[in-house]
């Protein structure tokens, strides 16, 4: 992939380092792990500039360098907020399939909206007995203490207080 600033305007870029950092992150996310040399060849940017960008991204936790192969890989992916829900479901589908098959368990995908979680997709393992507890469209009660609601309480600012019941 040829590296370029994401959606760079034809006029002066007020933050070229930010644009380049986002381009590097997008490249690593789409093309997979790469060496500094390969990134420099793809971008035409100096290795010293790329190294500073990669170190900043690594300090932020968005990139990891494998000491054995000296390849950088993305550990985060940027998703546009204006992306439609079907687009988000399409991008989450392969990860949901892999999680389901790797664990042999049902994998569920929830959307956060209006202070609640609604199941938007679910995958079942191929060779396992399935016990369905909820169907797509199910709205999860966040006052029950289960693994999913604990994650919501840890990261969502507007999550309701848990009452301590176990599901």
Helix content: 25-40%
How many beta-strand elements?
8
CA gyration radius, whole angstroms: 20 Å
| Amount of beta strand | 15-25%
Largest beta-sheet characterization: 3 strands, antiparallel
The SSE string, one letter per element, is HEHHEEHEEEEHE
Q: Globular, elongated, flat, extended or rod-shaped: what is the shape?
A: elongated
Q: How many helices does DSSP assign?
A: 5
Alpha-beta classification: alpha+beta
The average pLDDT score comes to: 79
Main β-sheet, spatial strand arrangement: 1-3-2
Low-confidence runs (pLDDT<50, min 5 residues)?
Answer: none
Distance between the termini: 47 Å
Explain what you see.
The protein is α+β, with helices and mostly antiparallel strands and 167 residues long. The model has no long low-confidence stretch (mean pLDDT 79). The N and C termini lie far apart (47 Å). It has a 3-stranded antiparallel beta sheet. The chain has helices spanning 16-31, 36-43, 47-60, 85-103, 147-155, and strands at residues 34-35, 63-66, 71-74, 107-113, 116-123, 139-140, 144-145, 165-166. Helices cover 40% and strands 19% of the residues. Helix 1 (16-31) packs across helix 3 (47-60).
Structure summary:
The chain has 167 residues and is of the alpha+beta class.
């Amino acid at each position: 992939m040829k590296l370029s600033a994401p959606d760079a305007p034809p006029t002066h870029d007020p933050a070229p380092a930010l644009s380049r950092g986002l381009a590097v992150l997008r490249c690593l996310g789409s093309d997979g792990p790469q060496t500094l040399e390969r990134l420099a060849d793809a971008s035409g940017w100096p290795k010293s500039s790329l190294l500073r960008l990669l170190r900043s991204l690594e300090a932020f936790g968005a990139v990891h360098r494998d000491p054995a192969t000296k390849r950088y890989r993305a550990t985060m992916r940027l998703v546009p907020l204006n992306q439609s829900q079907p687009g988000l479901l399409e991008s989450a589908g392969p990860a949901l399939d892999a999680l389901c098959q790797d664990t042999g368990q049902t994998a569920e995908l929830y959307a956060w909206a209006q202070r609640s979680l609604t199941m938007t997709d679910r995958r079942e393992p191929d060779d396992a007995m399935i016990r369905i507890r909820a169907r797509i469209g199910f709205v999860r009660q966040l006052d029950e203490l289960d693994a999913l609601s604990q994650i919501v309480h840890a990261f969502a600012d507007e999550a309701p207080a848990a009452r301590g019941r176990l599901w």
